């Protein structure tokens, strides 16, 4: 029996833009996906007991199956692998937008490595999980699997020429409370990413300046995070939400969650991840503000995760 885990993540700045080489900022959260893997004779069988995973659409199940096959191939375990019994659980809910797919891929890759007594470095786990992410995201940037593998608060820049991505740790004076609100809508990241690509191609005059703005925003956000100026960081988060709306990846539920959070005093709020459903993140320093915002969102009938950014990496 092999075991493994991967961090959930929240993208603070730059989702979608990162796919096109614009820098992004991502933080692991202190919730993980955990996997247990046992060799079996016949087929791949997944028991998914993650909170929220029942809402997983049939489409996601197919993507999950494809992602596991991609990992097995990348780990050179074909053709003699037989079957696998995979159990998935952990504290990370299966909400879209929290990197649930990447966290589970990292967990499964680590568990497979342990079950087959393979010595696999974290860098290799990251590469295997990137391969798995292609099943979910089509043309992923790699930001999710990087956060899921290494944890921490990271600056991420995809190398569009295919070389190594730029990954740098950002220091945060202390962990800060956030609230994640789930729209309950299972979003299709692949379709969202393709939609942005398509619209950027057909309307470059609108899109190229927005991408430039996203770049400047990420650079400024990094400075303000390092200065621990949380009010400024919050302001920039809200500006980032505006950019994401402009590129067509928000939806009325996400906009509503952002408004509720800001109305309750959150320093800033935005959609996080692929959008089109999935989750919103609000910056709510201190337990009291976090609770106030979380309760307001729950009172509106949405599920919430109370967590922190800037938790220590593995
Ligand atoms: O929805 P998630 O948690 O899988 O996040 C996707 C992030 C994107 O920037 C939209 C895609 C990517 O590969 O970076």
List the helices and strands and how they pair.
Elements: E1 2-13, E2 24-40, E3 44-48, H1 58-74, E4 83-89, H2 100-115, H3 122-137, H4 143-150, E5 153-157, E6 166-169, E7 176-182, H5 189-202, H6 204-227, H7 230-246, H8 252-263, E8 268-272, E9 279-283, H9 287-299, E10 303-309
Parallel strand pairs: 3-4
Antiparallel strand pairs: 1-2, 2-4, 2-5, 5-6, 7-9, 7-10, 8-9
Bound molecules: (3R)-3-hydroxy-3-methyl-5-(phosphonooxy)pentanoic acid (PMV).
(3R)-3-hydroxy-3-methyl-5-(phosphonooxy)pentanoic acid binds next to helix 4 and helix 5.
Task: Fill in the keyword field for this structure.
314 residues; globular; alpha+beta; Alpha-Beta Plaits; 9 helices; 2 domains; binds (3R)-3-hydroxy-3-methyl-5-(phosphonooxy)pentanoic acid; Ribosomal Protein S5, domain 2
Can you describe this structure in just a few lines?
By secondary structure, this protein is of the alpha+beta class. It is 44% helix and 24% strand. The structure holds (3R)-3-hydroxy-3-methyl-5-(phosphonooxy)pentanoic acid.
Walkthrough of the structure:
Helix 1 (58-74) links the parallel strand 3 (44-48) and strand 4 (83-89). Strands 1, 2, 3, 4, 5 and 6 form a six-stranded mixed β-sheet that branches. The protein is globular. The protein starts with a strand and ends in a 5-residue tail after the last strand. The protein has two domains: 2-169, Ribosomal Protein S5, domain 2 (2-Layer Sandwich), CATH 3.30.230; 176-309, Alpha-Beta Plaits, CATH 3.30.70. The model has no long low-confidence stretch (mean pLDDT 93). The protein is built from nine helices and ten strands. With 314 residues, it is an alpha+beta fold. Helix content is 44%, strand content 24%. Helix 1 (58-74) packs antiparallel against helix 3, helix 3 (122-137) packs antiparallel against helix 4 and helix 5 packs across helix 6. The structure holds (3R)-3-hydroxy-3-methyl-5-(phosphonooxy)pentanoic acid. The site of (3R)-3-hydroxy-3-methyl-5-(phosphonooxy)pentanoic acid has 18 residues, from helix 4 and helix 5.
């Amino acid at each position: 029996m092999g075991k493994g885990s991967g961090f959930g993540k929240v993208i603070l700045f730059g989702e979608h833009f990162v796919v096109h080489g614009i820098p992004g900022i991502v933080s692991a959260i202190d919730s993980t996906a955990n996997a247990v893997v046992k060799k079996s004779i016949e087929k791949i069988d997944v028991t998914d007991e993650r909170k929220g995973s029942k809402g997983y659409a049939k489409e996601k199940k197919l993507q999950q199956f494809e992602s596991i096959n991609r990992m097995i191939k990348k780990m050179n375990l074909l053709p003699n692998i037989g079957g696998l019994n995979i159990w998935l659980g952990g504290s990370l809910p299966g909400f879209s937008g929290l990197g649930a797919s990447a966290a589970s891929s990292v967990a499964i890759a680590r568990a497979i490595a342990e079950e087959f007594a393979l010595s696999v470095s974290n860098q290799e786990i990251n590469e295997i999980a990137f391969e798995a992410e292609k099943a979910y995201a089509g043309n992923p940037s790699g930001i999710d699997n990087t956060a899921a593998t290494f944890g921490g608060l990271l600056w991420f820049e995809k190398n569009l020429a295919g070389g190594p991505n730029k990954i740098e740790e950002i220091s945060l004076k202390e962990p800060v409370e956030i609230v994640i609100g789930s729209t309950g809508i299972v979003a299709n990241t692949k379709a969202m990413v393709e939609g942005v690509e398509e619209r950027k191609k057909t309307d470059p005059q609108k899109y190229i300046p927005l991408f430039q703005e996203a770049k400047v925003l990420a650079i400024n956000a990094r400075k303000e995070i390092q200065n621990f100026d949380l009010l400024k960081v919050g302001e920039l988060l809200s500006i980032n939400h505006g950019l994401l709306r402009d590129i067509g990846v928000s939806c009325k539920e996400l906009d509503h969650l952002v408004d509720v959070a800001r109305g309750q005093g959150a320093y800033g709020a935005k959609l996080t991840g692929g959008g089109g459903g999935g989750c919103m993140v609000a910056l709510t320093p201190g337990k009291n503000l976090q609770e106030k915002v979380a309760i307001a969102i729950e009172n509106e009938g949405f599920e919430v995760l109370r967590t922190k950014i800037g938790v220590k990496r593995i």
